[in-house]
C-alpha cells in the first residue's frame, strides 16, 4: 500500500499562505507601502488601475535592494527583521514574517525594479505565479518600484469573490489612511486610472488628520495625553457635541501600527457616558507607545490584532485620560460661579449676632374658604395659569402647513376627520373595525417617503430646484472616494453637485421635496450610510440612499398635525407595499383590539 501523505508543491503552499495575508487588492497596497516605510522612504507613490484588479504599483525613494536581496525577498519566510525567536518580542518595524512578497507573487504577476544609492545599476525581476521568469540589470532611480498585475489571475475562485470596484477602492483608501495617520512626516500620493486623487504632504499629526478629514475637524478635537510607567498614550478625541450616529472615525495605533481593539474602545465610550446618547459614536485618534516586549503582534496574519501584557491597567489609564481631557477642555458641564444671575453667597461674619430662623404661620388660614384680602397675610403671587395654558395651546397647535401634497382645503375637520387623533405629537390614533390602531407618525412617513424616493431613483424622475447660493461641501478623503458610487442616484433624486477639486463640491441643486437649509449635511449622511452598509449591488445602494433620505426628511416627533394631514398619512401608508414596517424592519403600526380594551377596563 502506497503512502498517502506528501509535501505540497511550493506554488500551492504559497497560494494557501496568500489566502491568509492577501485577501483583496487593499492587502497588497498595505504590505507594499509598509515595506517602503521599513526601507526608509520619505516619498511614496501608489498607482492603481481598476481598483487594483489590473495594476497596483508602489514607488518609493527608500534604500533599495541588491540583486541578491531582491531575489531572496520573494522566498517564503525570508526576512531581514528576525534572527532569533527573541526578536519577535522586540519588533519596531511594520513587516517581519517574510510572508507578504511571496504571497503576492503567488497570486499575481510581479515586476520589481530596485537600486541602492551606491550601485550604478539596478535590478529587474519578473515573477509570475511564484515562478521567476527574468532577472537582469537595468538603469533605474534609487529606491524600489513594485508592480502587481492581474491579482488572483491564477485563482479565479478568489478573483470572482472580489467586491465591486467602488468597494475595493474604498478599502484601498482605508489602508492608505491608516498608514498615513501614523506617518505624518512622510509624503503620500495616490494615482487612480492616471488621475491623482490624493496627495498628502509632510505635516504634523493634527494637520495630517485635517488633510484626510477636512479642515472642519480641527475645531472638533480635544488633545489627550498621559505618560506612565506602562507607556505613553496621546492623540485626540472629539467633543461630545460632534459625536456621530454612524461612520465615525475611530482609530487605535500602537507603536506606529494600526490595531483593532474592542476592549479599549469600551474604555473610550465609558468616558463619554452621560455626555452622548447610546446610539452616537465619538471620533478618536489614539496612539499608544509601549515597550515592544510587553506587546505581541504575532497573533494574526494581518497584524491588526495585538495582545498587551497590561491590558487592564492600560484600560483604566485610557478611560481616566479621556475623561480628564473632556473635563479639562470644558466638554463636561461645570458650575459657573461668575454668572451675573448667580445667587448671592453671604460672607461669614463671626461678630454678627446669630438668630434662629423664624417661620410666619397663619393659624386662621383655611384653604377651603374663598380667598379674602387680609393685610397681615402674605398673598400668593399671581401666576396667571389661565394665560399660560392658553399660550401653551397656541404653541402646540399652530396653523400647520401641509406636509403632504394633494390635500383637501377649507373643510371643517370636525366633520371630515371624526376618528383621527394625535397622541403626544408622536402617534396617530384611528378607529378601525376590530379596535384602535396606533401609528407611529415618523416611521409611517419614512415608509411613505422611502417608496417615493426609490421610485424617483429607479425611474430618474426626481425634480431638482436650483439654490440661490450654492453651498460648498467639504468631504473627507474617504467620503470623497465613496461619492462616485452614489453620484448617479443622487442626481436621480434631484441633487446637483459640481466638483471644485481638493475633495470640495458645490451643491447647485436639491430635490424639490427637501426644505432643509443645509443640504450638505443630508448628502454627507447619505454617504456615511452608504459607507456603513457597504452595499455593492446597485439596487441595494439605491435602497440605502432612499432610506437615508427618508429618515432625514420625514416629519419629526413633536410636530403637531392637522386632521387632514393625519388622514393623508394613513391613506398613503396603506398604499405602500409593506405598511406595517419600515424598510429596515421597525414596527410602524400596532393594533389594540376591542377585547384588549375591554379587558383593561374591567
Automatic annotation (TrEMBL):
Chain's role: This protein is involved in the repair of mismatches in DNA. It is required for dam-dependent methyl-directed DNA mismatch repair. May act as a 'molecular matchmaker', a protein that promotes the formation of a stable complex between two or more DNA-binding proteins in an ATP-dependent manner without itself being part of a final effector complex.
Organism: Fermentimonas caenicola
Record's keyword terms, sorted: DNA damage, DNA repair
Pfam family name, one: HATPase_c_3
Protein family: Belongs to the DNA mismatch repair MutL/HexB family.
GO cellular component: mismatch repair complex
Top-rank taxon, per record: Bacteria
GO biological process terms held by the UniProt record: mismatch repair
GO terms for MF: ATP binding; ATP hydrolysis activity; ATP-dependent DNA damage sensor activity; mismatched DNA binding
UniProt cross-references to PROSITE patterns, sorted A to Z: DNA_MISMATCH_REPAIR_1 (PS00058)
All residue ranges annotated as the DNA mismatch repair protein S5 domain in the record: 209-327
Gene coding for it: mutL
CDD domains associated with the record: HATPase_MutL-MLH-PMS-like (cd16926), MutL_Trans (cd00782)
Domain MutL C-terminal dimerisation intervals: 419-561
InterPro entries cross-referenced by the UniProt entry: DNA_mismatch_repair_CS, DNA_mismatch_repair_MutL, DNA_mismatch_S5_2-like, HATPase_C_sf, MutL/Mlh/PMS, MutL/Mlh/Pms-like, MutL_C, MutL_C_dimsub
Protein name: DNA mismatch repair protein MutL
Amino acid at each position: 500500500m502506497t503512502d498517502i501523505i506528501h509535501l505540497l508543491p511550493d506554488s500551492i503552499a504559497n497560494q494557501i499562505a496568500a489566502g491568509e495575508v492577501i485577501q483583496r487588492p487593499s492587502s497588497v497596497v498595505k504590505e507594499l507601502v509598509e515595506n517602503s516605510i521599513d526601507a526608509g522612504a520619505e516619498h511614496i507613490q501608489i498607482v492603481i488601475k481598476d481598483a487594483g484588479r489590473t495594476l497596483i504599483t508602489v514607488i518609493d525613494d527608500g534604500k533599495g535592494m541588491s540583486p541578491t536581496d531582491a531575489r531572496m525577498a520573494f522566498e517564503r519566510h525570508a526576512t531581514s527583521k528576525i534572527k532569533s525567536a527573541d526578536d519577535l518580542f522586540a519588533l519596531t518595524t511594520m513587516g517581519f514574517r517574510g510572508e507578504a512578497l511571496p504571497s503576492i507573487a503567488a497570486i499575481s504577476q510581479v515586476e520589481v525594479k530596485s537600486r541602492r544609492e551606491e550601485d550604478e545599476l539596478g535590478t529587474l525581476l519578473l515573477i509570475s505565479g511564484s515562478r521567476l521568469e527574468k532577472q537582469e540589470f537595468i538603469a533605474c532611480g534609487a529606491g524600489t518600484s513594485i508592480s502587481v498585475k492581474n491579482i488572483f489571475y491564477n485563482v479565479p475562485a478568489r478573483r470572482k469573490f472580489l467586491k465591486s470596484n467602488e468597494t475595493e477602492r474604498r478599502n484601498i483608501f482605508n489602508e492608505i489612511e491608516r498608514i498615513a495617520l501614523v506617518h505624518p512626516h512622510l509624503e503620500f500620493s495616490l494615482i487612480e486610472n492616471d488621475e491623482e486623487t490624493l496627495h498628502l504632504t509632510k505635516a504634523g499629526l493634527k494637520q495630517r488628520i485635517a488633510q484626510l478629514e477636512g479642515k472642519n475637524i480641527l475645531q472638533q478635537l480635544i488633545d489627550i495625553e498621559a505618560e506612565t510607567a506602562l507607556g505613553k498614550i496621546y492623540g485626540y478625541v472629539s467633543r461630545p457635541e460632534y459625536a456621530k450616529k454612524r461612520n465615525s472615525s475611530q482609530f487605535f495605533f500602537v507603536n506606529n501600527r494600526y490595531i483593532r481593539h474592542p476592549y479599549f474602545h469600551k474604555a473610550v465610550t465609558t468616558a463619554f457616558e452621560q455626555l452622548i446618547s447610546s446610539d452616537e459614536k465619538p471620533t478618536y485618534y489614539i496612539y499608544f507607545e509601549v515597550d515592544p516586549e510587553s506587546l505581541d503582534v504575532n497573533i494574526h496574519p494581518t497584524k491588526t490584532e495585538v495582545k498587551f501584557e497590561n491590558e487592564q491597567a492600560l484600560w483604566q489609564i485610557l478611560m481616566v485620560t479621556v475623561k480628564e481631557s473632556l473635563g479639562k477642555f470644558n466638554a463636561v458641564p461645570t458650575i459657573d460661579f461668575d454668572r451675573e444671575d448667580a445667587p448671592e453667597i453671604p460672607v461669614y461674619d463671626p461678630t454678627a449676632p446669630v438668630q434662629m430662623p423664624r417661620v410666619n404661620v397663619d393659624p386662621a388660614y383655611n384653604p377651603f374658604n374663598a380667598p379674602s384680602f387680609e393685610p397681615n397675610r402674605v398673598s400668593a403671587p399671581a401666576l396667571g395659569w389661565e394665560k399660560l395654558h392658553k399660550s401653551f395651546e397656541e404653541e402646540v397647535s399652530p396653523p400647520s402647513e401641509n406636509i403632504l401634497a394633494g390635500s383637501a382645503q377649507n373643510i371643517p375637520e370636525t366633520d371630515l376627520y371624526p376618528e383621527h387623533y394625535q397622541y403626544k405629537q408622536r402617534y396617530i390614533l384611528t378607529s378601525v373595525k376590530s379596535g384602535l390602531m396606533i401609528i407611529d407618525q415618523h416611521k409611517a412617513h419614512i415608509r411613505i417617503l422611502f417608496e417615493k424616493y426609490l421610485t424617483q431613483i429607479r425611474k430618474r424622475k426626481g425634480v431638482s430646484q436650483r439654490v440661490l447660493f450654492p453651498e460648498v461641501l467639504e468631504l473627507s478623503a474617504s467620503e470623497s472616494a465613496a461619492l462616485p458610487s452614489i453620484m448617479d442616484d443622487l442626481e436621480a433624486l434631484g441633487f446637483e453637485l459640481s466638483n471644485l477639486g481638493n475633495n470640495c463640491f458645490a451643491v447647485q441643486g436639491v430635490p424639490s421635496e427637501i426644505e432643509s437649509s443645509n443640504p450638505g449635511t443630508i448628502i454627507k449622511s447619505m454617504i456615511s450610510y452608504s459607507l456603513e452598509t457597504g452595499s455593492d449591488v446597485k439596487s441595494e445602494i439605491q435602497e440605502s440612499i432612499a432610506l437615508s433620505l427618508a429618515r432625514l426628511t420625514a416629519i419629526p416627533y413633536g410636530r403637531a398635525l392637522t386632521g387632514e394631514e393625519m388622514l393623508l398619512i394613513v391613506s398613503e401608508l396603506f398604499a405602500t407595499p409593506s405598511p406595517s414596517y419600515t424598510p429596515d424592519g421597525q414596527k410602524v403600526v400596532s393594533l389594540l383590539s376591542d377585547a384588549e380594551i375591554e379587558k383593561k377596563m374591567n
